[in-house]
Amino acid sequence: MPTPTDPAHVARLRTHLGRQGMELNEKLTKLLAGQNATLVTMKMPWEEKPGEKPQEKLRRFLDTVSRAQKRLGTEAWGLCIDCGAEVPEAVLDEVPWTERCRPCQTKWDA
Ligand SMILES: [Zn+2]
């Protein structure tokens, strides 16, 4: 812990991250092409930033997903990037691009 050692588990997380990355790429492409991509259904890791354009938000999210892809399989996986605390596995399974533990995330959002 927290690095998943079960290859099937790692593969599942990798798939999850890959899918999310693809979905973000698609939305970004549509958005840049002037089509109206909907962001409402997406689970974004942050609250709204005032004045941030949808494509900036998507890029930020995309960066977060690719950072998670790099962390997966390393010792940094599942550790809060601020304080190093373990992020609960249930959270990572659902939202594998989570970068912060809940207390740090709360501080970040405030
Ligand atoms: Zn933390």
Task: Please characterize this protein's 3D structure.
This protein has 110 residues and is mainly alpha-helical. It has one domain: Up-down Bundle (Four Helix Bundle (Hemerythrin (Met), subunit A)). It is 53% helix and 0% strand. The chain contains 4 helices and no strands. It has helices at 7-32, 54-71, 89-94, 102-109. The chain is flat and about 45 Å long. The model has no long low-confidence stretch (mean pLDDT 86). Bound molecules: zinc ion. Zinc ion binds at residues 80, 82-83, 85, 100-101, 103-104.
What is the domain tally? 1
Helix content: 40-55%
Strand content: under 5%
Q: Ions, cofactors, ligands: which are bound?
A: zinc ion
Output the radius of gyration: 15 Å
What is the top-level CATH class?
Mainly Alpha
Q: Give the CA-based shape.
A: flat
Number of helices: 4
Compute the separation of the termini in Å: 29 Å
CATH superfamily: DksA, coiled-coil domain
CATH topology: Four Helix Bundle (Hemerythrin (Met), subunit A)
Provide key terms for this protein:
mainly alpha, Four Helix Bundle (Hemerythrin (Met), subunit A), 53% helix, flat, binds zinc ion
Question: Quick summary of this structure?
Answer:
The chain is an all-alpha fold and 110 residues long. It has 4 helices and no strands. It has helices at 7-32, 54-71, 89-94, 102-109.
